[in-house]
Amino acid sequence: MAKIHFIDVTNRDGVQTAHLGLSKLEKTMINIYLNEMGVFQSEFGFPTTRHEQYYLQANLELAEMGVLKPIRLGGWIRAVVDDVEKAFKLVPGLKHLNLSMSTSDQMIQGKFQGARSQDDIATMMVHAVEAARAHGAESIGVNAEDASRTQIDFLVRFGLAAKEHGAQRLRYCDTLGYDNPFSIYESTRTLAENVGMPIELHCHGDLGMAVANSLSGAKGAIDGGQDAYINTTVNGIGERAGNADLVATALAITKSKAFAGKYQLEKPINLTKAWKISRFASYAFEVPIPINQPGVGANAFAHSSGIHADGVLKDPHNYELYSFDEVGRGEPELVETGRAICSGEYTGISGFRHIMGRMAVTFEDPAQAEEVLELARYANVEAQKPLIEDELLFIAKYPKIARKLLTLIPPE
Ligand SMILES: [Zn+2]
């Protein structure tokens, strides 16, 4: 029986979004939280972008150390041989890649201005797949950008060529959020049946259907006999109207009417971490969680009107589809209302010892305290807001890794 897997793209689609971004330490925390949730793969960044290289290398080291395990870390690049070469030069330990190529007539014409045919597009992709394999890539997904506006017979041809040359997955990108649950089902089922390889669903919310399309696309892939890999982002942060929200998608798969019985996750998503990752992403991106966000919004378990409050007090199932503790809510949170000593890029040793002492972190000697403080300052330069406890604990625990991922060296 084919299954559903999650590939979270917060650290790729989320951070490339206008007005938004994450520090390298914040991206690392997202990878750690995704791993805790049981997400199959994190699309952790852009291996051809110079300022990503030390962050990517450091996260691959965390994977080798077993800190980021079993989650897989996948890079995103264009399906161009030069990009493959550059990616493995900057990040030699890369194991998993998605290679992206525009496939719709709109984009082939609109971007290449008549200089490329469909055959050229397929050939470029095939050469990129072969180059990635030559570098020892363990898994390769091939992205059909703007797949929802691409003729299905070309998509089949594109997918078959990718498969023939050793790619493992075909990413169906509804880049503009153009699909609806009916149309995407037809497309992904046709692809699964005719290409015979696992299908990734990459859905955007321009028409408000990213989660619904992801479910329906996954159903199409599974009905066609193939595994489905749904692309999500934390809090749905992504280009324009965003991507399929991680928590909402996991809830929809497991809680929606008669879906989970036939269409199942390959392994469970630990939704009790939903509150933590969602709150962290909101803080890190500096984007509030909408009050009506599924599962993690302020109103997700709030009731005021007479009939609802009475009903939920008698039996929560009257007005709640799932319980707040299933998404990690209900723990009291300590909010400082008096004096606050927090980290910053100009923090001194006294304040820093106070902050770390609150978390029961002590140092072997003054030199060690200074080392961790210095790294925390650098992390604050990138974040431009106080670090959270998990970030400070991470720096204290893995100072060498922190130094690497905080390293930014512009080219000469
Ligand atoms: Zn996207």
What is the compact description of this entry?
The chain is α/β, with parallel strands linked by helices and 412 residues long. It has 16 helices and eight strands.
Q: What structural keywords apply?
A:
412 residues; alpha/beta; TIM Barrel; 2 domains; 8-stranded parallel β-barrel; 44% helix; globular; binds zinc ion
Overall morphology: globular
- What's the CATH superfamily of the largest domain, by name? Aldolase class I
Strand order of the largest sheet: 1-2-3-4-5-6-7-8
- Percent helix range: 40-55%
Q: What is bound: which ligands?
A: zinc ion
The structural class is: alpha/beta
The CATH architecture term of the largest domain is Alpha-Beta Barrel
> What pattern of helices and strands is seen along the backbone?
EHHEHEHEHHEHEHEHEHHHHHHH
Assess the beta-strand content as a share of residues: 5-15%
Query: Please, what is the average pLDDT?
Result: 97
Q: Remind me, CATH topology of the largest domain?
A: TIM Barrel
Radius of gyration: 22 Å
The helix count comes to: 16
First-last Cα distance: 53 Å
> Structurally, how many domains make up the residues?
2
